[in-house]
Design brief:
GO terms for molecular function: FAD binding. By secondary structure, the chain is an alpha/beta fold. The protein has helices at about 15-25, 50-60, 60-65, 90-95, 100-110, 160-165, 235-245, 250-260, 290, 300-315, 320-345, 345-350, 355-370, 375-385, and strands at about 5-10, 30-35, 45, 75-80, 85-90, 95-100, 115-120, 125-130, 135-140, 145, 150, 170-180, 185, 195-200, 200-210, 215-220, 265-275, 280, 285. Helix 2 (about 50-60) packs across helix 10 (about 300-315), helix 7 runs antiparallel to helix 8 and helix 10 (about 300-315) packs antiparallel against helix 11. The termini are close together. About 45% of the residues are buried. The structure holds flavin-adenine dinucleotide.
Length: about 400
């Protein structure tokens, strides 16, 4: 097949997914991942509606993913004393199937074992996106030639930077930050539930599911301006969170104290990637790299669906990347747009900026999660996720 040597950058969800499909179609796939090994942990991610579940089923991983689902019972908002303000049912945040990002990544990665070459602890340093081939120089000093390069390296994509330019052109700041994801002792004895305490513009949630001894905090806060920080300086990240959340009550002081022991934490702005086109020459973007939304934009479902579509179109076009990239973009653009629209509400929902905003959120969601409105709300949260008609590529299997 022409264009059969494919390099994928990023081994989280989109990367191993597209590698899985391409290998099945007979492509020769290499995945490069900056981390020294498959990255563990991270937040729980959810799948909603038929297309998400259908792709997991076609990949042969639906049952395994179900075996490891979080089975969350719901999200309860509490006041400074820990008394319930209002509660949302499990489906509201967890969709049809919720699993930890790291667990899902491992399931997909294991599906590709023996079929895909992985280069851990490396990254693309430079690439020449030529008319016939892509010459790649890795940070390790290795140089290789590929036919196509796929950027599946997340919100701060390396391939996007090398092929399209600096991320400031493509990342739209949404006025919020999110941090957390590390373990703290589960002193509240949370059992498959998330509790969330907030004040205007700030909220901290705590969840626990399959490891009863540990709870995971997520901090969300509003910021008018973008913060200048070094994402690899964990001490600085902890200082920012500690300053933002100083003075909050409930479990917040205890979690800030426990944060001192964390060796890792997630920290990012809530931003959306907006690209006029997902491909240039022999390079193409999928998942968060092309249309990420940090949180609330069904990013994981979008990543597995887009990997399925891109690989399927490349196989159907017999490796003709110009044709396949155009078809892929045509099929994914509106779908991704719908998911990003949903994500617009994530920050304001979790940390409304004003007292009045908090009151409106609480009152409206108390109403919307009761019958008969609950059915309508459930349908609305699935609408964006279901907004694509999946093609059947089984006829092009190698
Ligand atoms: C707080 C939070 C909550 C979320 N909740 C949900 C949810 O409920 N539902 C949902 O669907 N989604 C959720 N998401 C989003 C979801 O995690 C992502 O959309 C999804 O993981 C997309 O996967 P991806 O593979 O495209 O990118 P990522 O998961 O970001 O993976 C990118 C990979 O590329 C690697 N990489 C980075 N730079 C390089 C480089 N230079 N060279 C090689 N490799 C590199 C990284 O190490 C990583 O392994 C949430 C996100 C956050 C932050």
């Amino acid at each position: 097949m022409p264009n059969s040597r494919v390099l994928v950058s990023g081994a989280s969800i989109a990367g191993p997914s597209v590698a899985y499909w391409l290998a099945r179609y007979g492509f020769d796939v290499t995945v490069v991942e900056r981390a020294a090994a498959l990255r563990e942990g991270g937040f729980a991610v959810d799948f909603r509606g038929k297309p998400h579940l259908a792709v997991l089923e076609r990949m042969g991983i639906l049952e395994e993913a179900k075996d490891q689902q979080t089975n969350m019972r719901g999200l309860t908002f509490v006041d400074a004393e820990g008394s319930t303000e209002f509660a949302l049912p499990g489906w509201f945040l967890s969709g049809d199937l919720e699993i930890e990002r790291g667990a899902l990544s491992k399931i997909i990665y294991e599906k590709t074992q023996g079929e895909v070459e992985y280069l851990f602890g490396d990254s693309i340093a430079a690439l020449t996106n030529g008319p016939d081939q892509v010459h790649v120089a890795f940070e390790s000093g290795l140089t290789r030639v590929f036919d196509l390069v796929i950027g599946a390296d997340g919100l701060h994509s390396n391939v996007r930077r090398l092929v399209f330019g600096h991320e400031s052109q493509f990342l739209e700041f949404g006025g919020y930050y999110v941090a957390g994801g590390f373990d703290v002792p589960n002193t509240l004895g949370l059992d498959h539930i998330t509790l969330d305490h907030g004040v205007p513009g700030r909220s901290m949630s705590l969840s626990s599911h399959h490891r009863p001894e540990a709870a995971t905090p997520v901090f969300v806060w509003h910021s008018k301006e973008q913060i200048d920080y070094d994402r690899r300086d964990i001490k600085q990240l902890k200082r920012i969170v500690a300053t933002e959340f100083a003075g909050l009550r409930w479990e917040v002081p205890r979690v800030l104290e426990a944060m001192n022991d964390a060796e890792w934490m997630y920290f990012d702005s809530i931003s959306q990637v907006k690209m006029d086109t997902y491909s240039r020459g022999r390079a193409v973007l999928i998942g968060d790299a092309g249309y990420g939304a940090t949180m609330g934009g069904l990013g994981t479902g979008l990543a597995v669906v887009s990997a399925y579509v891109l690989a399927g179109e490349l196989a159907r076009a017999d490796g003709d990347h110009t044709l396949a990239f155009a078809r892929y973009e045509e099929m994914i653009r509106d779908y991704a747009k719908g998911c990003q629209k949903l994500a617009d509400g994530a920050g304001p929902f979790l940390a409304p900026r004003t007292r009045r905003g908090r009151w409106i959120r609480n009152a409206s969601h108390r109403l919307l999660t009761r019958r008969p409105m609950a059915g309508w709300l459930q349908k609305m949260t699935v609408k964006a996720a279901a907004g694509i008609e999946l093609e059947d590529y089984s006829g092009v299997l190698a």
